Amino acid sequence: MYFSLSRLVSLDVKWADLFDTSNPTFFDQHHNPYYELIVIADGTVHLEVSESRHTLQTGESLLLMPWEVHRGWNAQERQGQFFWVQFSCNPDLQEFVLERASQLHIAHAERTELRTTEVHREDLLVLPRRQQSLQRYKLLGLFEQLVQTMKQSKDYFRFHATLLLGEILLLMAGDFLEQRQLGAASPASYLTFRALADHLNNFYESDVSKETLERVLERKYEYLCQVFKKYTGTTIHHYVHQLKIQRAKHLLEQTAKSVKEIAEEVGYPDPFYFSRIFKKLVGVAPQHYRNSKP
């Protein structure tokens, strides 16, 4: 069984500790309203979860759902210790069908690099219900830090604990990709696109001419145009206009500068040309836009 976790998830660590199975309560029934992640710290641990029995070894993890009943079994055998953390997350974990794994786009080439576009791609992380970690010492080290952070309860300990849990889940999700051989490096064209988008985002008000882009990115302008269009669906020229108008809208709302001054500041020497582009993209003239804001 597998579960998916959104990149945009909000995590909250509730409790965490190291449990020794010599404690007689190990064989009692346990349940709680949160997700619970168990990782074996040493030895062998026998756990029964929803009438299914598991024998877990050092570095192996088991992910439990809210209110899922669990307890120890095989009292005749000496067992080890395990770390556990209870946490909530929003949105909730969703069951993931393994057949969809080949459809995962780990190296995302999306429009998230564009300042003018609101894209909330979730970028799912896949977490196996049960897994043997490929980096068990690192996993156990993170869990030890998490437990100590929760016990010390100093300063921003809950925030720190949440970051540690995020690292733990990322490590587990990375192990899943490696074990399934699903990891993928970003294509060269996407790296070029990111470099181009970064340059445009930072220098749109100055020189983003064909010659400058070719010199900075060491690629032919025609290739840069193809790559940008491929990953965004729009042109470099249009995106530069969007960036300038985005900045102009902020200046119209937050400053008392004249339309002419704003046009010059965002890279339009001709205020009439600026007004024409502004109306084309926004739907109203700059002054009308300013007057409509409270």
Helix and strand pattern = EEEEEEEEEEEHHHHHHHHH
Overall body shape: elongated
Total strands: 11
Number of domains: 2
What's the architecture of the largest domain, going by CATH?
Sandwich
CATH superfamily of the largest domain: Regulatory protein AraC
Q: In angstroms, what is the radius of gyration?
A: 27 Å
Estimate what percentage of residues fall within beta strands.
Answer: 15-25%
Mean pLDDT: 90
Structural class: alpha+beta
Report how far the terminal alpha carbons are from each other: 53 Å
CATH topology of the largest domain: Jelly Rolls
Count of DSSP helices? 9
Helix content: 40-55%
Q: Largest sheet, described in full?
A: 5 strands, antiparallel
Low-pLDDT runs: none
Describe this structure in words.
This protein has 294 residues and is of the alpha+beta class. It has two domains: 2-180, Regulatory protein AraC (Jelly Rolls), CATH 2.60.120; 188-292, Arc Repressor Mutant, subunit A, CATH 1.10.10.60. Helix content is 41%, strand content 21%. The protein contains nine helices and eleven strands. The protein has helices at 136-152, 157-180, 188-203, 210-217, 221-232, 236-254, 259-265, 271-282, 286-292, and strands at residues 2-5, 10-20, 35-42, 45-49, 52-56, 60-64, 70-72, 81-90, 94-96, 125-128, 130-132. The strands form three sheets. The chain has a five-stranded antiparallel sheet, covered by helices on one side. Strands 9-1-10 form a three-stranded antiparallel sheet. Strands 5-4-7 form a three-stranded antiparallel sheet, with no helix packed on it. A hairpin with a 2-residue loop joins strand 4 (45-49) and strand 5. Helix 1 packs antiparallel against helix 2 (157-180), helix 3 (188-203) packs across helix 5 and helix 6 (236-254) packs across helix 9. It is elongated, with a radius of gyration of 27 Å. The mean pLDDT is 90. InterPro entries: AraC-bd (IPR003313), Homeodomain-like_sf (IPR009057), HTH-like (IPR037923), HTH_AraC (IPR018060), HTH_AraC-typ_CS (IPR018062), RmlC-like_jellyroll (IPR014710), Tscrpt_reg_AraC-type_HTH (IPR020449). Keywords: DNA-binding, Transcription, Transcription regulation.
